[in-house]
């Protein structure tokens, strides 16, 4: 009986496609093309004699055999990476800064994927306001930062749009003719600047009744019904509602999320590709079509 030998790159292609449920985003994460990753998957399926993934015009999902093979495939890749790391014996640090108003529920998965791809990588994450992170980046204290575009005009990797809205608790009451009660981040926060410029341009009176304390504190103030806040539509508290139209508040301009990095070596760029792919995956709206 001929022994079937697995190809590491083909198995990695399968696992990555399964994780992202997208050929396009898997190719981005692996730094290759959709065509190349399709060829690797076909090679693996031919080697095993099973169809591992089912592909339709709207989604990619595991076949019955793919579901059985996925965890052993992960273990196969992890064993390969451990073996390679043992030979290299090079423990490295990856110092990543993420702006507080940008960080969302994708962060734990992002860190897990980075660790899976490079077990010798020690990841350090710093959550602060954009300006503090950019200063640390310019001083060489951070290897990469994720911030909003208007906080820094230099060129970088565009991770996608960020849309903002006015959020409050469902029962929040604003007395007509009175200043809008506003909860905001610290005075150095760009989101606060956007909100105040919009209110001033619309000639609306406002009063900050809750200032500072970080993004989580502002969201807590919103959930408690203390005030209205300008927040990312992606990161607003699940129990809050958009009240801009109801209260006659001005529309807030959208932003772009940018990745800045000085890293150029192969292993670091590989980590950055994984970071970008995971971040973009979790920024796709729930009802958006999945790209293949």
From TrEMBL:
Protein family (similarity comment): Belongs to the LysR transcriptional regulatory family.
Domain HTH lysR-type, residue spans: 6-63
InterPro entries cross-referenced by the UniProt entry: LTTR, LysR_HTH_N, LysR_subst-bd, WH-like_DNA-bd_sf, WH_DNA-bd_sf
Organism: Aeromonas molluscorum 848
Keywords: DNA-binding, Transcription, Transcription regulation
One MF term in the entry's GO annotations: DNA-binding transcription factor activity
Protein name (database record): LysR family transcriptional regulator
Superkingdom classification of source: Bacteria
